[in-house]
Design a protein that fits this description.
The structure holds two protein chains of two kinds. Chain A is an alpha/beta fold. Chain A has a single domain, classed as Rossmann fold (3-Layer(aba) Sandwich). Chain A contains eight helices and ten strands. In chain A, the strands form two sheets. A six-stranded mixed beta sheet of chain A has the order 6-7-8-3-9-10, sandwiched between helices. In chain A, helix 5 links the parallel strand 7 and strand 8. In chain A, helix 7 crosses helix 8. Chain B has one domain. Chain B contains eleven helices and no strands. The longest helix of chain B is centred in the N-terminal third of the chain and has 30 residues. Chain B is globular. The chains are: A alpha/beta, B mainly alpha. Chains A and B meet through helix 2 of A and helix 1 and helix 4 of B.
Chain lengths: ~240, ~260
């Protein structure tokens, strides 16, 4: 589904991605982890075509993304910071994105799922951070695309909504989608992910399941295993 | 692209600034007509205002809209939409709404004053055409500046400097060079130099159309020879068109390589 070959990206003097290779063929939830500034968001944005790589290839559904933009029909994306045009109402934003995508959407179901009805006629700049994140989630999940990319979906959510999100992700996974996710909440990642990708210095440093990670680092808890990967003597 | 244009346009029609701009022209039109009591005098006064103000507003609006819609842009970039459609749609949304404010704001008072029955209708239309050209040119230049400058304050600074340069400083330099090289024949030089500044070019086009080029003296005669003919008119409108097309092509070129 997603193939990345020898991806390089520099921002000025800062090398963010350094010959990254990645193949995602399987369905399920893939967590991309790594310390701050390890290139998680840059990797995601390269798949979406928002960042133009210096070198290397990204193929989505076997199509080189440099040639087109139509492949984004197959991807639902949740940006890290939920920035929306502030003077729009929630309903207007949702219908605008629906109009742009021109695909059947299940927005009503998701609005009910996240209890967003009271906010539908509010302007987006009047919403709290958590509510905005829920709107963000509705926009992301309403199209049922085969690839879903979530950049920090947990940010700003209260514990109840977090449980909701977990249920939703489980449902989506059972539909056979490929879900790529970044998060800093380790318990959340440990519970949901089928595959862990650990980024360090612009490359994939570890690629495997949670159990693989624990056994290869010799740690019994997931948090410690991740901390072990980040620790300086290891890096 | 049309969808993006539609959203940008509706977004702008909700912004109070579009109405302020529209009301300003409406007021200006009525006041000028009231004070001059004559359509053709009002057109001449209006020219001086349009030549300076339209570029300034186009520049500021262009930069402001680009920076204000960063969030909207980020949202659109992840959707199955072509990059150039996003930015060109936004650009034409701004240019269209500014042009509409100009046309309606000035058109209503002049129409109410009996423009359609008077002989100055062609002069007035020329004024509006030039106004639309200047809007297209300066909002495109502003988009160019904003796209290549991440820092908003710097972007605004550069945009204002650009306006100041083309509206004031360029003329100063032009004049200085005319004085300095007055021993030499300067007709060709001044013709060419005015082509490189859309504001100068617009001013000359309107002055000649209004048939007050006698005010321009000897150079005026040369200019009349060139711009006064239909060939000259077409050539200078072509140059204005180039001033629109080149910045737009540059927008499309720059965003192809830009990271978001």
């Amino acid at each position: 589904m997603v193939n990345i070959k020898n991806l390089h990206k520099k921002f000025g003097a800062l090398k963010v991605l350094d010959g990254l290779e990645l193949e995602i063929e399987n369905k399920g939830i893939i967590a991309v982890l790594g310390p701050n500034g390890s290139g998680k968001t840059t990797l995601i944005k390269s798949i979406l075509g928002m960042v133009v790589p210096d070198k290397g290839e990204v193929l989505v559904m076997k199509e080189n993304i440099r040639k087109g933009w139509n492949y984004r029909k197959e991807i639902d994306y949740l940006p890290q910071i939920a920035n929306f045009p502030g003077n729009l109402r929630v309903t207007e934003l949702i219908s605008m994105i629906k109009d742009l995508r021109n695909k059947p959407a299940r927005d009503k179901e998701l609005i009910a799922f996240f209890n967003l009805e009271p906010f539908l006629n509010k302007k987006l700049n009047k919403l709290s951070g958590g509510t905005r994140q829920k709107v963000n989630l509705v926009l992301c999940f309403m199209f049922d695309s085969p690839i879903v990319i979530l950049d920090e979906p947990t940010s700003g959510l209260d514990p109840v909504s977090l449980l909701h999100l977990r249920d939703l992700l489980q449902q989506e996974k059972e539909k056979g989608k490929t879900i790529i996710i970044t998060s800093h909440i380790m318990s959340f990642v440990e519970e949901i992910s089928d595959r862990i990708l650990f980024l360090l210095e612009g490359r994939i440093y570890f690629d495997g399941t949670v159990a693989d990670l624990k056994s290869s680092t010799g740690k019994s808890s997931f948090d410690h295993a991740i901390a072990h990967l980040i620790s300086p003597e290891n890096a | 692209m049309l969808k993006i244009l539609k959203y940008s346009f509706f977004d702008l029609t909700r912004s109070s600034w579009s109405y302020v701009y529209f009301l300003f022209y409406l007021l200006l039109g009525f006041v000028l007509l009231f004070l001059n009591n004559d359509l053709s005098n009002a057109v001449i006064t209006l020219m001086n205002v349009i030549i300076m103000l339209v570029p300034l507003i186009g520049t500021i609006f262009g930069v402001m809209y680009y920076y204000n819609s960063r969030e909207f842009t980020d949202l659109l970039l992840a959707q199955p939409v072509k990059r150039s459609s996003i930015f060109l749609g936004q650009y034409f949304g701004v240019a269209l709404s500014l042009s509409l404010s100009l046309i309606l704001g000035l058109g209503i008072p002049f129409a109410a004053y009996g423009l359609f029955k008077s002989a100055v209708i062609w002069d007035f239309s020329m004024l509006l055409v030039i106004g639309i050209f200047l809007t297209l040119i300066f909002s495109a230049l502003a988009f160019n500046i904003a796209i290549s400058t991440e820092n908003k304050i710097k972007g605004f600074g550069y945009a204002i400097l650009l306006w100041l340069f083309l509206a004031v400083i360029y003329d100063g330099l032009f004049l200085l060079s005319l004085i300095y090289f007055q021993e030499y024949p300067l007709d060709k030089f001044s013709l060419i130099a005015s082509m490189f500044n859309p504001i100068d070019l617009s001013r000359i086009l309107i002055l000649l159309k209004l048939d007050i080029s006698a005010l321009l003296g000897y150079t005026g005669a040369v200019f009349k020879d060139f711009f006064g003919t239909s060939k000259g008119l077409i050539a200078s409108l072509m140059v204005l068109l180039l001033w629109v097309i080149i910045p737009i092509l540059n927008i499309a070129r720059v965003i192809r390589k830009k990271d978001f």
